[in-house]
Amino acid sequence: MANGNGPVDPPQSAALGSVGFPTPGNANPGSDQQAGAGKWAFHTVDNGGSSGGGSLGSYGAFLDRTLRNDNELDVMDMEFEMRFTGSSGSWAIRAFTDGAAVWVPFELWRIGHCTPDDPSDDVRMSVWMLEHADNGVYDLENWGTSGNGGGEFEHSSSPGNDDPYTDWIYWVLPADSTPGQSGYLADEAAIRGGTYGYDGEEVMARTVLINVDGGIGPSFNQDRPEDGTVFRITGRNSIPCGCCVGMTGNVDNDTGDVTDIGDLTALIDFLFISFEPPVCMEEANADGAGDVDIGDLTRLINFLFISFDPPADCL
Hints:
Layout: E1 2-3, E2 6-7, E3 40-44, H1 59-66, H2 71-75, E4 79-84, E5 90-93, E6 101-104, E7 106-112, E8 123-130, E9 143-145, E10 148-150, E11 168-173, H3 182-193, E12 201-211, E13 230-234, H4 261-273, H5 281-284, H6 294-306
Antiparallel strand pairs: 1-2, 3-12, 4-7, 4-13, 5-6, 7-8, 8-11, 9-10, 11-12
């Protein structure tokens, strides 16, 4: 969406269409993505590189590794941004090793469903990090081959041995997921103070950025995306934009837009039985909190049988 020179119009690919990612025109990152020489691709970690038997280069491997457990439900109808903000950045936690705080040069944001230009529903996310180099720096720690390389070696998603990639990043929704930065800032204070409670919700796991054709070893053509870069990740968008009008609650999508016991049944089925998402997930957001969970079920029960207070308006 943007690079060091400002907005990129039209937007350029930031993933590898050649291995199945649904990019604009099924394209790979091109020379216009950055003002500098890098071409960056969003992916998951690899296991050996092109010459070392790496087998995680496909889009299918990305989905399996990144959208584990119920992560797909959190991603599929939302959009996200990774914003390289330079000196402001974020504080990440080395969640799987020593719990140390590590500064990273980007911010992670969930920017809502069908509202990319409306910041009122944006939620800043917390950052978990796994690094093998153990140097406390977000960098291209995975490069080269087993004969001459570092970390997990370069990535097999692109031919050759010149596709280094970064530390692993996990996107975590703070326990306080109200729009804005309050949840992130509370987590940052806890991370830096050594009191973080790991109480957020993982949304994407094991994500990395590959510098495609970036070099066999240090020095690379870019060590990280330039300040000002914004990468946008869009879910599968199974929900049409604007499918919820007026009041939420029509979970079963009946043509009369009536909220009744059928909607309660449909929401129970989604949450506990089939896990098949409603046609319009926005209609299931009955409490207006953003995520669809047991709070929405409670709101519908109250409306139908107890308080009769209507569910939230559509966002």
